[in-house]
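Renewal narrative, Specific Aim 1. Our central claim is that a sequence can be written position by position from structural information alone. The example that follows is taken directly from our test logs and has not been curated for this report. It begins with the C-alpha cells describing the chain, in the order in which they were read.
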C-alpha cells in the first residue's frame, strides 16, 4: 500500500479528523462525492469502535494496486484483543457502506481493512497516487486540531530523542567512571611499591653518593606527583558514585593551620608561602580532606605564578563563616575561565598549551568544600593574579 496519510486515534476529535481526511483523500483520488461520503463515514465508524473499545489505534489511508486495479484503502489498526465480534454495531454499519471490509489479527495487532475500487475513469495510476501524496503533504494540517496534534507529536518525538540521548550519555558516563576507578586502582598499587623502593634505596644509600641521592630524590618527588593525580582520579570516581566518606571532627582553625603550613610549604618548594596570623575559629571538618583542598589551591597558586613569587594565605571570620584566602600574583584568569574552573576536567585554553594538568583538582576541591556546607569563590585579574576564598561554616 502507498500510504497517503495517517491519523493516530486517541479521542472523539480524531473521528472528525479521520472523516475529514478520508473525504479529502477520496476527493483528490477523483472519487464522487457520494463515494467519498460513504467511505469516510465507514472509516469514522470503525475508528469510533477502535477509540471506544481498544482505547486507541491508528488509521492509515492509502492506495493499493491489485491485478491492474487500484483501491482506495483504509487500514485501522489497534492492539489485538476481544474487541470486535460479529455483533459489533459500528463494524456492521461500515460493512454496509464499503464493498470490502476485512478483519485480520496477528498476535499483537488487529487490522480492519476497508477497500473500494477506484474507477478507471479517474485515470488513476501510480504516478497520480504519488501526486496525491505530495499534495496532501503540501496541504499540511486541515484543521487547528490537527495542527496542535502534529505539534504535540513532534514534541513527543523530540522528548523521546532527548530521553534516549540522556540515557546513553548516562550510560557512557557510568562506563567512564567505572574505567576511571579501575585504572586508578590498578595504577595505585605499583606506584606505592615504586615509591617505597625509592625511599628505601635513599635510606640505604644514606647520602654516600650525591648523584644517586639526587636521582632517587627525583624519582621519589615525581612519583609523588603521579600518586597525587591517581588520588584525584580515585576521588572523582568516588564523587561520581556518591560514596565519598568524611571523617569530620571539631577543629580549631588556628591550631590546624599552624600544623599544616610546613607541609604546604614543602609541597611548593619554589615559592614563598606567606601566612598572616590565623583566626581563632572552630569548624567541623574532615582535616585530611580540608588539607587536600588547601594543597590543591596552594599548588595551583604556585603552578600558575613565577618561581620565588609570594603566595599569601590568610583567614578571617565573615558572617557565620571561616574564610580562608589564598592569593597569588600569577597569570590570573579571564572571566570565562573563572566561570568554569570548578567544572570537571575544565582547563582554560591558554593553560592547556603551557601547563600540564587534568582539570580535576578544583572540581574535587569544590565538592569537598560543598560537602562541608561551604563554597569556594574566586576573584582574578588576568596578568595580575588570583584569590581563592574558601568559605566553611563555623561550628556553633
Ligand atoms: P589543573 O590545574 O590540573 O588544570 P584545576 O582543576 O586545579 O586543574 O584547575 C582548573 C583550571 O583553573 C586550570 O587549568 C587553570 O586554567 C585555572 N586555574 C586554577 N587555579 C589557577 C590560578 N591560581 N591561577 C590561574 N589559573 C588557575
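The sequence written for that structure reads:
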Amino acid at each position: 500500500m502507498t500510504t497517503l496519510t495517517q491519523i493516530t486515534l486517541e479521542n472523539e476529535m480524531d473521528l472528525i479528523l479521520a472523516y475529514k481526511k478520508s473525504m479529502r483523500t477520496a476527493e483528490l483520488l477523483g472519487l464522487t462525492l457520494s463515494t467519498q461520503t460513504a467511505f469516510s463515514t465507514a472509516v469514522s465508524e470503525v475508528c469510533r469502535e477502535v477509540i471506544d473499545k481498544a482505547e486507541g489505534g491508528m488509521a492509515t489511508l492509502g492506495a493499493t494496486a491489485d491485478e491492474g486495479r487500484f483501491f482506495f484503502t483504509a487500514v485501522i489498526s489497534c492492539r489485538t484483543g476481544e474487541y470486535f465480534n460479529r455483533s459489533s454495531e459500528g463494524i456492521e454499519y461500515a460493512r454496509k457502506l464499503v464493498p470490502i471490509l476485512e478483519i485480520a489479527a496477528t498476535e499483537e495487532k488487529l487490522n480492519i481493512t476497508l477497500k473500494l475500487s477506484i474507477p478507471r475513469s479517474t485515470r488513476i495510476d501510480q504516478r497520480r497516487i504519488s501526486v496525491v501524496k505530495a499534495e496532501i503533504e503540501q496541504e499540511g494540517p486541515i484543521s487547528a486540531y490537527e495542527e496542535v496534534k502534529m505539534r504535540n507529536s513532534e514534541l513527543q518525538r523530540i522528548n523521546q530523542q532527548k530521553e534516549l540521548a540522556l540515557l546513553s550519555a548516562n550510560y557512557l558516563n557510568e562506563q567512564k567512571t567505572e574505567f576511571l576507578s579501575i585504572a586508578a586502582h590498578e595504577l595505585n598499587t605499583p606506584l606505592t611499591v615504586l615509591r617505597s623502593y625509592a625511599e628505601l634505596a635513599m635510606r640505604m644509600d644514606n647520602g654516600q653518593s650525591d648523584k644517586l641521592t639526587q636521582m632517587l630524590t627525583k624519582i621519589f618527588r615525581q612519583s609523588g606527583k603521579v600518586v597525587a593525580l591517581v588520588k584525584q582520579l580515585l576521588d572523582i570516581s568516588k564523587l561520581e558514585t556518591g560514596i565519598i566518606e568524611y571523617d569530620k571532627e571539631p577543629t580549631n582553625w588556628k591550631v590546624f593551620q599552624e600544623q599544616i603550613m610546613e607541609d604546604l610549604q614543602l609541597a611548593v618548594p619554589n615559592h614563598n608561602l606567606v601566612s598572616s596570623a590565623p583566626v581563632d575559629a572552630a569548624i567541623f571538618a574532615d582535616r585530611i580532606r580540608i588539607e587536600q583542598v588547601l594543597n590543591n589551591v596552594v599548588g595551583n597558586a604556585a603552578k600558575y605564578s613565577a618561581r620565588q613569587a609570594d603566595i599569601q594565605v590568610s583567614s578571617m571570620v565573615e558572617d557565620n563563616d571561616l574564610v580562608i584566602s589564598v592569593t597569588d600574583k600569577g597569570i590570573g584568569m579571564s572571566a570565562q575561565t573563572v566561570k568554569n574552573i570548578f567544572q570537571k576536567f575544565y582547563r582554560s585554553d591558554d593553560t592547556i598549551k603551557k601547563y600540564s594538568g587534568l582539570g580535576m583538582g578544583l572540581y574535587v576541591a569544590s565538592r569537598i568544600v560543598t560537602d562541608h556546607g561551604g563554597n569556594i569563590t574566586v576573584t582574578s585579574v588576568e596578568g595580575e593574579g588570583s584569590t581563592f576564598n574558601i568559605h566553611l561554616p563555623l561550628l556553633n
